[in-house]
């Protein structure tokens, strides 16, 4: 997953001018098209060419793909590219990275005209992916999703076997059922404390209740309410029956290194380092659902491809973006263990076929049957969900405050942040 939970700050610097969108026939002469990722994902040229460049050039020989390889990524790098007039056509970024590196510089383009011009079928995507991007674009479609963050629970079969507890189900289950199962494997054995479940704080950003953090009309925090309390209390349930040592926030370490955690809900790229699983009997279970909300799971958190506003070859860039979201390309991506943003059950079922580590695993757990409705996503909501609210809820976890005080203090800090960063 390409992601950033950095504090977002108002960024200065010059803004690239928005060129006129072309409506002419796509040129067929060889043309270089430049790809930039806001994380390290496309920085390795050999990997980029193998996974993206070569398939693209096989489909469209007139496109010569070039990947941009920065030594690091920050706002100064972006400003340097703008000042140097570095050719950039397609930019890959997760939501927080878009807010940090693209939006302040007006670095993305409205792609709706191209969608209409080339008759793209947006109904092929899970609707939440398109809804989320339009929220990022303040009503405009500014990107196409390449992939979603992994959305499943990993579980250690050995811990369940040790205590004679049944494994998590392969089909849908509820949050209450998950926490009840976690309670059964939270126990001391042979001097070692075992824990039931941990979930990453990304839960607040992807919460199944679709909690809104900031009112876009008033620019005021709005989560100090029953819904905010419900989300926070659901997050805190993972610590039921835990000793003090079990309050450590690093669930990945507990699961992969200590091997004392039965279930890990990382909500990110937990399987891109297969060596971490060596010696563990493991499988996957789906993220729980909310029956009262129509059996929905959590919200998506995709990586989007954006059309650069500085691109001199917008038609070719969109042609590449369309190819990378095609059924044929996404099928191969799924086989290589990347979660598709498409609805296709055939593509979802092909997940991990080319990766030995997924043989015999519960592949159906990788993508929710139904995502939760997406919420507003901007600089303020990202700060609230990714940083401020988790900080205060963790103080409740540590016995330093109560839930009502935590929500009140979190709202006060979010409002202060909004005032300080409002343009």
Task: Explain briefly what this protein structure is.
Strand 6 (187-189) and strand 7 form a beta hairpin. The longest helix is centred in the last third of the chain and has 19 residues, at 379-397.
H and E string: EHEHEHHHEEHHEEHEEHHEEEHHHHH
C-alpha geometry:
globular
**Which regions are unreliable across 5 or more consecutive residues at pLDDT < 50?**
1-24
Report strand order across the widest sheet: 2-1-3-12-4
DSSP summary, beta strand count = 12
Characterization of the model:
The chain has 15 helices and 12 strands. It is of the alpha/beta class. The chain has a 5-stranded mixed sheet. A 5-stranded mixed sheet has the order 6-7-10-5-11. β8 and β9 form a beta hairpin. α14 packs antiparallel against α15 (403-421). The longest helix has 19 residues, at 379-397. The radius of gyration is 22 Å and the shape is globular.
